[in-house]
Hints:
The structure holds two protein chains of two kinds.
Chain A: E1 3-5, H1 15-19, H2 47-51, E2 58-60
Chain B: E1 2-13, H1 17-28, E2 33-37, E3 53-55, H2 59-62, H3 66-73, H4 78-82, H5 87-107, E4 131-133, H6 139-149, E5 153-156, E6 158-165, E7 170-177, E8 182-193, H7 222-229, E9 234-235, E10 240-246, E11 260-262, H8 284-287, H9 291-297, E12 304-306, H10 312-324, H11 328-336, E13 346-355, E14 358-359, E15 372-374, H12 383-402, H13 410-428, H14 435-449, H15 456-476, H16 482-507, E16 530-537, E17 540-547
Parallel strand pairs in B: 1-2, 1-8, 2-5, 8-15
Antiparallel strand pairs in B: 3-4, 6-7, 7-8, 9-14, 9-16, 10-13, 11-12, 12-13, 16-17
Helix pairs in contact in B: 1-6, 1-12, 5-12, 7-16, 14-15, 14-16, 15-16
Amino acid sequence: MPPIIDDSKCTGCGVCAEHCPQDVFFGSEIKKTPVIAFPEECWHCYACVLDCPVPEAIRLRTPVPMMLSYR
Amino acid sequence: MEIEHIKADVLCVGGGIGGLMAAIRASELGAKAVVAEKGNALHSGKGGGGCDHYLSYIPEIHGPDMDAFIEEMLQTQQRHNFEGLGMNRIRVHIAKTFDIVKMWESWGIPMKYRGEYHYAGHAFPGGFRCLMKYEGRNQKPILTKKALEKGVEIVNRVMVFDLVSDGNKVYGAIGLNTRDEKIVVFEAKSVILGTGGISRLYPSPTPGWFNNIATRLSLTGDGRAMAYRAGAELQNMEMRIQHAGPKYYARFGQATWIGVFRDPQDRPIGPFVTKPERLYGDITPEVNKNIFLEYAQAGKGPVYMDGRGMSQEDLDYMMYWLPHEGNTPLIEHMKADGIDYLKHPVEFMTYDQGSGGRIVTNEEGETSINGLYAVGDELANGVSNASVFGWISGENATLYAKGANIPDGKEIQDLIDEKKGLLEKIRGQKNGPDWKEVNVALQQIMSDYSGALRTEALLDTGLFHLKRLKQKALESIIAGNQHELGRSIEVLNMIDIGELVFICSKERKETRGLHIRRDYPLTNPRLNNKVHIIKEVDHRPVTEWRPTQK
């Protein structure tokens, strides 16, 4: 559900917080690791992961209720 | 809260595909166009994650008879998108699609696959293929860039929630900043509502969750709610819509999957395909979106999308398009959990999408209020529709704005004071329910009393209960910051829409589609070519039946 940020890679550029349509990172400040203020409002659109300029600084975890059912 | 004023000739509410296209057209025709977007236009709206199919007609591909194309298209799920709009509107739309395709291509949205226009999916074997495959993953950043190049002003993080209108003409709108403690008053000669559909009125596949939906949790029917309060007409608010997709990962893209829908004994559930066909998919759920639910209820499920037997090339093709359809996170989940689609059929389910109503507009895109237009899902579903009518409405709103002016009325100031009072009251409330609690309550009422089964007694009971919820929400909903204030206003908007669903459901004394009245099981043929209108007159809802536009 929530985005997971790797503190050691994040540069605090603010792109994820600026681009998130749901404002999951509400209250984040530039030059600091973004705050994940509303994790349950993440829709997994992937904007933050795709637009982040640093590889693997941010990723999404699939919430367990959303695991695909298959056989 | 301080008040900021922004002037515009054309105000586009919502920076989705419809709003951006309208603003681009208005701006290139010389209007001062402003887009107010409650998120960020780069990725907002139903098309924000992408899309991989564009309804379009190319005479060189489909032949010179456009009506034959339309007839074929109306046998697919497109019939829901165009229901009650009339053939003239459909022809205007379809005739314009190729122009938009060429325009988008010139702006950098890849509309060709391997150098050619390529049609696949959402199709019956042997029939026309009406949906062009295109690489839409970056459509929103590209349209946003184009809008800025054309001089459009984009105001992000401002949620417009009410119109300034005298009931006859629109003069602007009022919004709240979802980050800073500010109210934004737009003085606009014309307003285009491109605010999307309504996604959180009925429960999602995951109880109590709002984010597990095929659309987005920020699409809350704000446009239709504010249009109604301003006196505009809405239509068919009682009609329900459903969608189908992978079980537990609610997403669009059903037709991007290649395979055959099969029951647990591996029997195809539909008559259309018996092996994976990349050009068609399996169109069975477009004939009946409820089919997965029906199979489950009849003890015949689960139903799986079964890609076994497909070639690696077909799988690569499907995996090429799924990200453009906004399904990258789904693919990542499959990779992470080791789900190999060549070996493992994936279960599908029916999602409840909520109310399928729309704002009444004419062929110019104008609502029943002068200067107020509606595009995108407030008019009809789909990227093709949003782009075509965004463009047309942008043109017409610009023409309208040339002859319009904004009065300095006391009524406008009164409305601003009233809305400021409401926002400050909510921010000041303590110890009440937050937006999520109210939303859960709303969903359970909608699902239990105006959901799959409806009767007069259920509808009366549910409406009474909903009015109590509304009163309680207005008196006590809490919001600790501007973001939560926006979410609270969204829920209040959805409660308004919920009330209209109940009222219209009571008035439609027949069973039609997913509107199932147990006390009126017949489908009344006298209502076949009618639309059900609701509007507010003297603060009361008034309904009427009107012939569908030609």
